[in-house]
Write a structure and sequence with these properties.
Among the domains are: about 190 residues, no CATH class; about 70 residues, no CATH class. By secondary structure, it is an alpha+beta fold. Helix content is about 35%, strand content about 15%. A hairpin with a 4-residue loop joins strand 7 and strand 8. Strands 1-7-8-10-9-3 form a six-stranded antiparallel sheet. Strands 2-4 form a two-stranded antiparallel ribbon. Strands 5-6 form a two-stranded antiparallel ribbon. The structure holds adenosine monophosphate and magnesium ion (MG). The site of magnesium ion has 3 residues, from loops.
Length: about 500
């Protein structure tokens, strides 16, 4: 990796910590701290994204580097400082507590930040160990790559290396800590700047650092915009609003629930970031949240993600307001987000339902569809996939989507199917639908099967899912019986399938 074109744009462009490494502490006025990844006893490369590696021009012989054991010429590792609202409450300094950026790599077309997740303590680790366990690392690797192939904007994964070291976690926070195998994922993005990266300076009244960070961001990541005028800031923020709305509309299209949409987990590039207790909708339930910490308030439930996107975006807008002469103009940006979301949501339905274009009456058609999906347990992915291939508007074609075939609400469904069939003149745009309604997603129990095997040193399921999910819209009939399936009964209440904690 020494032959890569390493850059120090962020380190050179923003103020950092004088001290290198050190124990968890407050680092006022800074955007980063230099740190050294912890070394691990036995690095072992387990999963590898060849496409990402090709894009970066990396050979597959660097597991010691990707485990944090060896630095190469040009790397200058650091942890980013940011803040955030967690579950609606301002938490002040958070930062990269278990992530360490190795550096920025310039390729022919792009600059990418390479970051190790689980590489040990940084000044931002607060009371935790900076490590990551195998189970959450597998979830991050598989899901970020799957999302990319589903065409949902996301950070990428390059590698997963096991460390040969145990990490102790209390999975259900019930006083039963246990050792688990540790791992390090190398993830990749244009940058890992978050809404919280700006909030921390605004909330601490540090206008100067805020301005420097915004100047840096716009110069390197939003070229063409300017940071010195209200107009420039508004166009920049509008872009973030658009990108965020597009990302969330895509989550809704494929049934992804992020689970921890805190403002520190919102990328300014509108890419899905920080795969923690996320989950996939299996039986359609807009109130579902995969995150046990969110079980009471259900703040981050599936059906509320667009609204939370707006709430988070409003926090970003507030934090930019000290830089504006007319901060009231930021309301335009928030309105822009809502308009963008509405537009992307309509586009999504046009694709999912195979319409020609969005018409006024379609709102009712969609409402009725979503109501029907909630009458009895109905699998979202299977339902939409089957909808793309039916020959006649009859519910019999959808039996596979129902968890209990004795309780199918036949009347309601036949009514809806008839209305839809009339709307599309009996001619569904099948290709469009098949391209918007994936056949395969990373169902919660699928990831869990990969984890159970990996914990026994068998990576074949993880590998199979990685390959399967490279082509999520294709039939791949050899995998149909195995993976185009409703949640099995064993997964209904299994930890890691129906509920997940942040203990990663
Ligand atoms: P999350 O919401 O999971 O993205 O994390 C919230 C904050 O907790 C971030 O600042 C993380 O870096 C930090 N954090 C989470 N897990 C750990 C860990 N094992 N060690 C250190 N910091 C952590
Ligand atoms: Mg985070």
């Amino acid at each position: 990796m020494a032959d890569l074109n390493w850059k120090r744009r962020f380190l050179n462009g923003t103020p950092g910590d004088q001290q290198i490494g050190g124990r968890p502490r407050q680092v006022p006025g800074c955007c980063w701290s230099r740190v050294t990844p912890s070394t691990v006893p036995e690095p072992n490369l387990r999963l590898w994204s060849k496409e990402m590696a090709d894009e970066l021009n990396i050979e597959q012989d660097c597991s010691d580097v990707l485990a944090g054991n060896r630095l190469v010429e040009g790397m200058d590792p650091y942890a980013q400082r940011y803040g955030g609202h967690q579950f609606g409450n301002w938490a002040n300094q958070l930062g990269d507590g278990r992530a360490i950026t190795l550096g920025e790599v310039e390729t022919e077309t792009n600059v990418f930040e390479l970051q190790l997740k689980g590489s040990g303590i940084t000044p931002y680790s607060r009371f935790a160990d900076g490590k990551a366990v195998l189970r959450s690392s597998i979830r991050e690797f598989l899901c970020s790559e799957a999302m990319h192939h589903l065409r949902v904007p996301t950070t990428r994964a390059l590698s997963l290396v096991t460390t040969g070291e145990d990490v102790v976690r209390d999975v259900m926070y019930d006083g039963n800590p246990a050792p688990e195998p540790g791992a390090v994922v190398c993830r990749v993005a244009r940058s890992f700047l978050r809404f919280g990266s700006y909030q921390i300076h605004a909330m601490n009244g540090d206008r100067e650092t805020l301005q420097t960070l915004v100047d840096h961001t716009i110069k390197h990541h939003f070229s063409g915009h300017v940071s010195t005028t209200d107009d420039g800031l508004v166009t920049w923020l509008n872009q973030i609003g658009e990108d965020t709305a597009l990302m969330i509309a895509n989550w809704m299209r494929v049934g992804f629930v992020h689970g921890v949409m805190n403002t520190d987990n919102m990328s300014i590039h509108g890419v899905t970031i920080d795969y923690g207790p996320y989950g996939w909708i299996e039986d359609y339930d807009p109130n579902w949240t995969p995150n046990t910490t969110d079980a009471n308030g259900r703040r981050y439930r599936f059906g509320q993600q667009a609204e939370i996107g707006a709430w988070n975006f409003a926090r970003l807008l507030e934090s930019i307001s000290p830089l504006m002469e007319q901060p009231e103009r930021l309301y335009e940006c928030l309105e822009g987000y809502y308009n963008a979301y509405e537009r992307y949501d309509q586009e999504m339905w046009v694709q999912k339902l195979g319409l020609d274009e969005f018409k006024q009456g379609d709102t009712v058609l969609i409402q009725n569809l979503l109501a029907n999906l909630q009458l009895v347990e109905t699998d979202m992915t299977i339902f939409f996939r089957l909808l793309a291939s039916i020959k006649a508007p009859e519910i019999e074609a959808f039996y596979d989507a129902f968890y209990d075939t004795t309780t199918i609400p036949t009347t309601e469904w036949n009514q809806w199917l008839k209305a839809w069939w009339e709307r599309i003149n009996g001619q569904p745009r099948t290709a469009r639908m098949l391209d918007a309604n994936p056949k395969y997603v990373l169902r919660n129990w699928m990831a869990q099967l990969a984890i159970d095997a990996a914990e026994k040193n068998d990576y074949s399921i993880a590998q199979e899912l990685y390959m399967l999910l490279k082509n999520p819209y294709q039939e791949q009939s050899e995998y149909e019986d195995k993976w185009f399936r409703k949640r099995p009964e064993w997964a209904r209440h299994r930890v890691g399938c129906s509920m997940l904690s942040c203990s990663s």
